[in-house]
Amino acid sequence: xxxxxxxxxxxxxxxxxxxxxxxxxxxxxxxxxxxxxxxxxxxxxxxxxxxxxxxxxxxxxxxxxxxxxxxxxxxxxxxxxxxxxxxxxxxxxxxxxxxxxxxxxxxxxxxxxxxxxxxxxxxxxxxxxxxxxxxxxxxxxxxxxxxxxxxx
Length: 152
Description:
By secondary structure, the chain is an alpha/beta fold. It has helices at residues 6-9, 31-44, 71-78, 117-129, 135-138; strands at residues 20-23, 26-28, 52-56, 59-65, 81-91, 98-101, 106-112. It has one domain. The protein has five helices and seven strands; from the N terminus they run H-E-E-H-E-E-H-E-E-E-H-H. Strands 1, 2, 3, 4, 5, 6 and 7 form a seven-stranded mixed beta sheet that branches. The protein is elongated.
């Protein structure tokens, strides 16, 4: 009979946060343009899924990471460094779970990823690089349909 001691079965679990996030290209849009871009790409790809944009701290964004197939990227990740090829972003207040594009008959979901510390920090950094006004400032009440919030 094999006897197992409790301390032999314990495993060390280490949580090692990322040390650095490197963004190689930032592209800023007005939120309405970012939503149209996402809708157009969804239609062109023949997608039946609802397109999604991440949102945190007043910033809507899409991330294009480098593929993990590269040995260099894997090595960097093991060192705690994340590389994003491109980040597309737009200032967007307030948060709305769904956006409807009139001309495209497409619904876009916004997902609040603000509980993730990396995305919160990323959003704050993107805000500091923003040059365009927030969508709340860019769209006047007369341009919005008062009955249907989130309708662009």
